Amino acid sequence: RKTIGVPIAPVDRANHERCATAVRAGLADAEFAAAWAEGRAMTLEEAVVCALGEAADE
């Protein structure tokens, strides 16, 4: 999303912030930063595979 210059949709912004805050609360700063960087480095295809893989595990 950021790579192509698309902002978070206003309708999604509150949920995005709530989720990010919850994840930050559960991780040390360095862990969060590493996970965030890993996610940002993913291609769209990698992100889809990751998301679908986690959904299948639940």
Q: Unreliable runs, pLDDT <50, ≥5 residues?
A: none
| H/E series | HHH
Number of helices: 3
Question: Over the alpha carbons, how many angstroms does the gyration radius reach?
Answer: 13 Å
Average pLDDT value? 89
Number of domains: 1
Which terms would index this structure?
mainly alpha, 58 residues, 3 helices, 0% strand
Description:
Helix content is 76%, strand content 0%. The mean pLDDT is 89. It contains 3 helices and no strands. The N and C termini lie far apart (26 Å). The radius of gyration is 13 Å and the shape is globular. It is mainly alpha-helical. The protein has one domain.
Quickly describe the structure.
With 58 residues, the chain is mostly helical.
Give the SSE layout.
Blueprint: H1 10-26, H2 29-41, H3 44-57
